[in-house]
Design a protein that fits this description.
104 residues; alpha+beta
Length: 104
């Protein structure tokens, strides 16, 4: 994630995407402190992270060359997002005690 955080354009930091052999993917967008996660499972269903901040500022990020934005109520702490990615790469599902997902 340090490499992603070191990169920035007018659209924000670039999102990073992890893809497993079964076709499932997890993308993480960040501003260096908060993160937005999108998970697509192996059968193509999509989910996004759920955050606790209902009134905070949204997260602007670069999603593969396109300006994107996630509302504050979908953001989690960056370290929790990294733990979620580690779990996803290990077992294929990114749910952790700190990061939960809801269907799109």
């Amino acid at each position: 994630m340090a490499k992603v955080i070191s990169l920035q354009s007018g659209r924000g930091h670039p999102a990073v995407e992890f893809v497993r052999d079964d076709g499932a993917s997890l993308s993480i967008a960040t501003d260096g402190a908060r993160a937005f996660l999108t998970w697509t499972n192996s059968i193509g269903q999509t989910f996004h992270s759920v955050g606790a901040d209902k009134a905070g500022r949204p997260l602007a990020f670069d999603y593969f060359g396109a300006w994107s934005e996630a509302p504050a109520n979908r953001l989690v702490a960056l370290q929790d997002a990294v733990s979620s990615a580690e779990t996803f790469l290990s077992v294929g599902i990114p749910d952790t005690q700190s990061v939960i997902f809801t269907p799109e």
